[in-house]
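User: Here's a chain of 149 residues. Predict its fold as tokens.
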Amino acid sequence: MMKFITDGMCGGLARWLRLIGYDTLYFNIQRKIELIRIAEKEKRIILTKDKKFAEKYPEIVFYIEGEDTYSQFKEVVKKFDLEIKEENLFKRCSICNTKLEEITKEKVKNRVPEYVYQNKEKFALCSKCNKIYWEGDHCKYIRERLRNL
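Assistant: Prediction complete.
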């Protein structure tokens, strides 16, 4: 599966790629050479709104034309022919990119809102940033947007 890096201008794009299961790093740094080093070492594609940067390293950097996050996401999905499979959705932390681990309902008691605890059965945990995830209404919205691709 492809791996990506997004720069400071494409943070929202990083979240969308993570939502569909793609390992996507996000760096808001000025020194672009650091991005090149990481991309080469980890075999990643850099996604950026910096046209000059993309022209300088065309083999590893892809220029994103879209202005808003969703059009950028559609552009990347189309360009790299990314697969969007149900079994890959919501498997990475949208904040830090770590793979999520299933966690028992008992372990989230008092860590999620009471309503959520009473009405949801499946939960996942990000072991790095300690965020707890569950299938909320936003997941329906995300699936709808993905179907409309």
